[in-house]
């Protein structure tokens, strides 16, 4: 029995050894076959006979052996020479996609594909390839090419005399001396027929016409009437709007149910907080009039819409200096000449020594103070002024959209209003519209 077992084991070992030799011989023959096919193909290509080189290289590329990558790279060269002929463009693209799907794909493969798509006027495909390559390899050259191309935009046809900042996908617009409401890309929704219009939130905006103040929906249907003859109102946000009454500014609901607390002034709610003035001093209150920051400062910095709070931070003015407060407390000893509130993401614009730069919500300087004027970041872009014109920078501080505009506002939903010689128009980022969102790399 033991002798039989030894014979059985020896036989098994010999079978495995023979199988290993066979595998080694087949691998060697495949490699040799690849080498021979590549050599023949290169001979044809040296004579510019690409049509005969292609089938040889396609066969060589089909082997999983030592020269597969060389065969593929040579095959791509042949495809590019024949790319104007039917079918070869698709073959070239298919091979690029095959190479990019490999776990060990190099940055050069993604760069080649992106440059091909850019040259072929296929910006969306180029940006998609670059994003994939960046996430897979982290290559700085891919990031640079992506940043150089991701901010291409289209200019809309709608033109207005004046506009507000974009708020919750809508924007107040002025035409023929009256105000209405448009989508974030400038498409008019509520006709320009009002003396004043608030921000649109929770399905309504507050408007003023012929002395009446009332709320309307997106189809311009009247929803509620403010029956008292009050003088003014602010912006509607988070279910509250400031209304100027004989007792001062009070907060009302969208149906004009009035609160009891009165302020000398009150801003627009954002993140549950609003700037408010009482006793000649400013602070920050919540929806129930509880103070996050007591009313003991010379000012709370607000944006064009009256918002002061985002990313847990506000800017407070003491005498002639501005300080960053986070979660209701002073963040550090750094002071600024001026500042604008944070957006929902990105950095806030601050002014020092007469120039504007950007800080994060920990007070760290992220982009040096070197701009004549600036707005805080919105969707990873910030409007800045250089010379007589405005453009946009990215989070690295580099110019992303050249300064071409008389004035510019912040991006939202991939669009931003810009002032041209013809009036206010809207630019929309190609990448945002194509991919359905904004792709963040940092």
Characterization of this structure:
The protein is of the alpha+beta class and 442 residues long. The chain folds into 2 domains: 30-153, Serine Threonine Protein Phosphatase 5, Tetratricopeptide repeat; 154-435, 7 Propeller (Methylamine Dehydrogenase, Chain H), CATH 2.130.10. It contains 8 helices and 32 strands. It has helices at residues 2-46, 50-61, 68-81, 88-100, 107-119, 123-137, 140-149, 430-435; strands at residues 153-155, 162-163, 170-175, 178-183, 188-194, 196-197, 205-209, 212-216, 222-226, 232-233, 241-245, 248-252, 258-263, 265-266, 273-278, 281-286, 291-297, 299-300, 313-318, 321-326, 329-330, 338-339, 348-352, 355-359, 365-371, 373-374, 382-386, 389-393, 399-405, 407-408, 415-420, 423-429. The chain is elongated. The chain starts with a helix and ends in a 7-residue tail after the last helix.
Beta-strand percentage range: 25-35%
**Stretches with pLDDT under 50, minimum 5 residues:** 6-11, 13-22
Largest sheet data = 4 strands, antiparallel
CATH topology of the largest domain: the name is Methylamine Dehydrogenase, Chain H
Task: Tell me the strand order in the biggest sheet.
Answer: 1-32-31-30
CATH superfamily membership of the largest domain, which one? YVTN repeat-like/Quinoprotein amine dehydrogenase
What share of the residues lie within helices? 25-40%
Q: Please count the helical segments.
A: 8
Structural class: alpha+beta
Q: How many separate domains?
A: 2
- Radius of gyration (CA) equals 32 Å
Q: Quick one: overall form?
A: elongated
| Termini Cα gap | 70 Å
Mean pLDDT: 92
CATH class membership of the largest domain: Mainly Beta
Which architecture of the largest domain does the CATH hierarchy give at level 2? 7 Propeller
Query: What is the tally of beta strands?
Result: 32
Oligomer: single chain
